[in-house]
Amino acid sequence: MENEKDSLTQxxxxxxxxxxxxxxxxxxxxxxxxxxxxxxxxxESDKIVTNVHVLAGATKTTVRHVDTKxxxxxxxxxxxxxxxxxxxxxxAEEDEPFSLGDSDTVRKRDKVYVVGYPNGNEIRVERTxxxxxxxxxxxxxxxxxxxxNSGGPVLNGKDEVIGVSAAVxxxxxKNRQSKGTAISSKVLKLLLNEARQVESIDVWQKxxxxxxxxxxxxxxxxxxxxxxxxxxxxxxxxLNLNPHLAEIYQNRAVVKMTLGKYHEAFTDRxxxxxxxxxxxxxxxxxxxxxxxxxxxxxxxxxxxxxVFCGVIGKENWLIIEAASKAGIGQVRxxxxxxxxxxxxxxxxxxxxxxxxxxxxxxSRSYNSRGWIRYLYGKFETEYGNPSKAxxxxxxxxxxxxxxLKLELIKxxxxxxxxxxxxxxxxxxxxxxxAIEDFNESIRLNPKKALLFQYRGITKDALKQYEDALKDxxxxxxxxxxxxxxxxxxxxxxxxxxxxxEAIDDLNNAIQLDEKNAxxxxxxxxxxxxxxxHDMAETDYKQVLKxxxxxxxxxxxxxxxxxxxxxxxQAIHYFDKxxxxxxxxxxxxxxxxxxxxxxxxxxxxxxxxxxxLKSNPKNATAxxxxxxxxxxxxxxxxxxxxxxxxxxxxxxxxKAYNARGNIYKELQLHSKAESDYTKAKELKSKxxxxxxxxxxxxxxNTNAE
Length: 704
What we know:
29 helices, 6-stranded antiparallel beta barrel, alpha+beta
């Protein structure tokens, strides 16, 4: 798991007090070979320690020293603790071991250093101890560790090992971070004393308790893909093989919570706690009390939910559940977990549909479903699925219409329903209709800032900039402590070239919400336009620090660089967005445009091919690929692409202009003149990528 990957602080390298090693594993799947990395270190001159989960399931394992390139030969396993995820290997060669420190001396908020190979190179990062749990057997860090650190040493200030990096603890709560963990050196010392006869790694991997790790890892993959039922099946199988793995119970509880299976989730959570009971001691008194309190909370929450669900009714409970899932889906998207986010939005819609079946005359249910469909549509728009997004927006309008039919009296409810319909219409480009809805919504509830904010966004889209600024001003007057209102006014100021005014508003937005990545982006754009490139770059880095795993943020930075014609830097950001999500087709499209601008037409065609494979109705990709083919002299193929671009988007003046250029080069003057005339009617010049208007709209997107 790589949340907060970019927040890892690489420290000044120095010689370690022992030898760390890089594990490189291969795993045979049905039709491919997967690869992964892990870390380890010498604990005796001929013994290396790492995590069980690093080696479980690997069909090929290589151990090497990164700096010296030295390879180590694994003779076998001499000790393992499958409950605590530790394994010690006998190595044929010898190297410098680390000294073991005393993990019992470690305290909360102590600074420690984690050494590992998250990217194939040794990195030493500082972490703060968040807590010490499971009778001082586990150390929790303030932040997660990047994938590849597992099995590496955790060192105190004396470079003594006080822990072994392990897995992460995931959270079902939308506002809580997962945390990195380590197994304490206390556990490692006990295991080292149990070293016995060497067992071959192949035989060891076939042990049921070890196979459980491999199957649980598949469950984690399914969870990240949003395939919750399959994830639970894998967790079930893993626990049948090894019922002592608390982390699997914990992870299964998270999935069951997501599915609304609260009582089952509470049972799993209690089981995970009981597998690692905190023993009473003076040093561990806080952890002992915390675990007892956790048990009380689990029982209390289970009882509360049972009573609460009975009081409010099942249909109301389903709506609350749906809102929670949609909120978690938004967070998963920000963390870069797109499949899980997509599945959570759909689960939310399904739950409200179930509530509607139970009470089909309840207007609020229709509006709730419509609003979640709208949010899901915005998500799909952001991640490059416009056809699916349009269907969701249209369905949201249908839901809002039904809500308005069912509720004819209560003004605040009707105001909310007009707002939902207006937001969906705005997203479909039906701006005039959206304004009508927002006007009615404001008439019915004139004290709600959100309504002025949304109407301002739509007026901005209609280029009614002064009116948009007035709406944002009204929203600020009603909610002066709300960051988003200053943000939107800053966006509109950017749009009309009032960059200093924009910076003032964006400063306010950031002061009120330091995690508002879009505000940093917009301020960076303002600084770029004012020629303050260093300040802009600082803002752009902050965007990536806040959302290190979200491809859309890197994509926006690429668009900003495109705007000021820094095409190589734009490609760098588009590369990053693609690396974060290889299915993010907007990244390929824009990278292709940049390559095309730089004259790299053959490489651009490869990117456009990828776009059209995933989205065969993308007119822009056909048009740009056609232009690239023309430059390479492939006129017949170019005409085929441009004809398809015009068929898909008949109002694309650039496509007519590009086709006219081909006809002109082929001496087909009447056809060329006809296309040029059409392009002129559509007020379009040039051929490729974005017009100035396109770039401005892309780089100054009003975030909802």
